[in-house]
Amino acid sequence: MKTFKELRVSAPILEALSRQGYACPTPIQEQAIPQVLQGKDVLGCAQTGTGKTAAFSIPVLQLLSAGKPEGYKQGAIRSLILTPTRELAIQIDESLEAYGENLELKHAVVFGGVSQSSQVQQLRQGVDILVATPGRLLDLVSQKLIWLDKVEILVLDEADRMLDMGFIHDVKRVLSLVPAKRQTLFFSATMPRQIQALADAILRDPMKVEVTPESSTAETIQQTLYYVEKANKPKALLHLLNTRVDDSVLVFARTKHGADRLVRLLLKNGISAAAIHGNKSQNARQNALDAFKKKTIKVLVATDIAARGIDIDLLQYVINYEIPNIPESYVHRIGRSGRAGASGFALSLCGVEEIPYIRDIQFTIGLELPVQELEGLSMSPELIRQSQFLLNQGKSKQSKDLPKTGTKPDFRHKKKSYPRKSQNGPNKVFSSGESFRSRGNSTNDRIR
């Protein structure tokens, strides 16, 4: 494993990284940093949580601090980092502050949903690196408060999410405002056709750096599966929140409207909650996230898209109210707990129609999820057997594409008992009775 020093990161940045406790780059950082430092365009495919922010912010800081171009105008924006949401913009700006604390570079962040006065005041003092969301950026450009004609390095972060949020036309407008001769860094978690076409249009002979989606779950995360019919899921969620979960919890819903319905259910039953999804304003999302971090609400309900970029220290609990149909999304979801070596607990509620997704997830992570019962709410073993029989017979639309073997039981956290076969059928479930407790924390030397 290489160190940041071996990647030729400059001494002032190395000192800042050391102060932050970081020594070893993540795979995306190890691939991207040398390419960016050589002045090459980069096409990066990596999910949030892989260290992507440092992969572009460290070399951008180093390149800009190395010297000013001919004809440099004092206070001109030399690098623009475009990102879809306020939360991500703030996170990137904080990273620039941490890694560039020993450099004489100025940076600022602009986003919508708040008054622009303080942002404009900072811009007037001169900015080397600007982090921005598309809407507020173009608004300030139209007011002739921002000029982008001196940009040397353009970074597009979370490009696929900008597409999902309807920002793709704003992005194209921004591209028309920056110089054609520039270095471009393009990062996206996925590469749908429209995003690939955009990358092909704006990148010049790019170096592709890629981190394949995680297919394994951390050993510090204790996973539990509950087979519950769809109609019983609201009761099952309330039961878990009132009896099993003793701390803040991130609950995943599949849709925006579903997330809002869950919040109404929880509030009606006296449980403090808020939702975060694409239909919420920047202000509403940030307020919900801040309240969750401060523990003034117990439950944050999120969709997969909105959950990108959420990084909450010492979050123990994640509940999959609905099972994702993409295995990597499951890994990404539960990875919000158990970060930096801390313990985590992932609880999943699976309905009949979601059993194929569970089979796919188990094959992908190579583990059989431990099953527990919820008294009076779990599906009968007979119903589970019938559903799995249909799946094995190929009557599920997904089953024909799934391997028949490849999983092993996840006994990593089981001490007293575990799911096993019985005379009543292969899917008889047993409750371990094991309580959910914190297992303490350990440190991690990689930048998240």
UniProtKB/TrEMBL annotation:
Pfam name, any one: Helicase_C
GO MF term list: helicase activity
Biased composition, class Polar residues, residue ranges: 420-448
UniProt short sequence motif Q motif, positions renumbered to this chain: 2-30
Composition bias, Basic and acidic residues: 398-410
Residue ranges of domain Helicase ATP-binding in the record: 33-209
Domain Helicase C-terminal: 220-385
Residue ranges of domain DEAD-box RNA helicase Q in the record: 2-30
Alphabetically ordered keywords of this record: ATP-binding, Helicase, Hydrolase, Nucleotide-binding
Chain segments carrying region Disordered: 394-448
Superkingdom assignment: Bacteria
Residues of the signal peptide: none
CDD domains: DEADc (cd00268), SF2_C_DEAD (cd18787)
Similarity field: Belongs to the DEAD box helicase family.
Protein name per Swiss-Prot or TrEMBL: DEAD/DEAH box helicase
Organism: Sphingobacterium thermophilum
Organism placement in taxonomy: Bacteria, Pseudomonadati, Bacteroidota, Sphingobacteriia, Sphingobacteriales
